[in-house]
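Chain X:
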Amino acid sequence: MSWARIMAPLSGADSDRAVLAAAAMLAEPFGAELAGVYAPPDVADVMPWMGEGLMGGVQTTALESLREAAANGETRAQAALDACPYAKRRFFSLQSPVWAGLSAEARLSDVVVFSNDSARGRGPLAESFQQVMADEQRPVLIAREGLRPGGVIAVAWDGGKEASRAARLALPMLEKAERVVILAAPKSASRSFEPSRLQAYYAARGVNAELDVLSDGGEVAPALQDGAARAGAHLLVAGAFGHPRLKEFIFGGTTRSLLNIEQPSLFLSH
């Protein structure tokens, strides 16, 4: 298996360079295209707010300022991509409606790379992260310090649909990993499953994964974090939003807990 296109949404902020570096690191072993996709503020999103209170010259000035900010952001995003040493790269600048363009680019990408801030709901690409992962259901990589896609990778496994999807979509990366460790916490799961089944699935595809059955029956996220740290994992593969999104938003959920930890980097799929 292989990946052919890694997408990095860009905002024109300083964080673009780190996201591009992570995306290049992910793309390089496959010779994949690195697509730097600039997602500007969308004029269409603010127009409904510019009604009766912002008419005439005031409205025109506000729109021109927004367009100027978008143009400046595009210049900075292009410069960040140009500075990336990875050769197989392309730049795309989205036009209004930006959400539709972002969705289209994500659908044609194997993995979409975001910064930690975007995944935690901070910065100009926070909404883009939610759109790509939850609405478009594309696999995302959340790049954190110490990321090494070819290093040690831990895979969270509970036998569920989301975990299964993440475990399968990560296969191209797992095939190139230095070491793969499956983390299973059957005492904390709401379903009955056999941890070794994923190990057999990987073995049939040439990935020799170790199995670490976590004995703690408490909260899943801390157990996974401890297991990943014990394995020396540079990346944790996990399913996202296994419960209805509204319920997860209100009560937290394992996904939100994983997004709030500092290490390791995350590969998530919904």
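Chain Y:
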Amino acid sequence: MTVRLLATDLDGTLLNSERSVSARTAAAMAAARAAGIEVVWASARARHSIHELAQSCGFTGKAIGANGAVVLDLADGTPVISGTTSIDATAVARAMTRVRDVVPGVVFATVGATRFVAEHGYAALCVFADHHRHPHEMDVQATVLSAEPTVKIVARHPDLPSVELYRTVLAAEVDGVELTHSGAPYIEMSATGVSKASALARVCEELGIDRTDVAAVGDAFNDVPMLEWAGTALTTENAMPEIKVVADRILHSNDDDGVARYLEELTEDRTGHSTEGAPS
């Protein structure tokens, strides 16, 4: 099978445990793109965080953010938004009410294409790594985002682990939103039907690439739709056991440059020249 595009999750997949792009990974992405292989980032992260990462390693491709609700084009070094899918305001209110009924004590933040607003209780539970924002710098309000449409709702509980919260809310079948979990200390909700897979399908249609020519790699629940959509499903050695079940192949771990190694294989197949041994 010829792979023309690789879509990769960031945290726990492309990024190492320090949440950075290794020199080997940056070199492998650049070599793959030079060989005509598209690389698309697909993350739960917000626009500002994706932009900072792209600047750190020179990535200028397309990126899917907010679990598919936002598509960015980084071609000119800035995160130009090329598509957003928001949640209807009524659905946002209903979803939050329903989740609070199911799990009393839950607190929320809402994410727009460019804004992030947290309830006081939500910000109090955060550390910088949660959203790549210092809690004291968050826009904290008694009510959540109203300045622009919401593309993602995030929720957490002071006592309940996020995986348990995810399973409890999933069983409650909250209408109007797509529930997922990325392994972070919170759960996430996008508009119904929105996922990394739905955004990746739109990107591939724009590029004229068939899904059979797409490989996707991820490590958590929010990656499953994308892995199931792509022609080749990949995961990393450090991935959750449930994700390994749906993968066609398990790569080396994120700390062992698993995605970079795979890109090196693709590039060698395309060019006949090995790029293995690039800086790590």
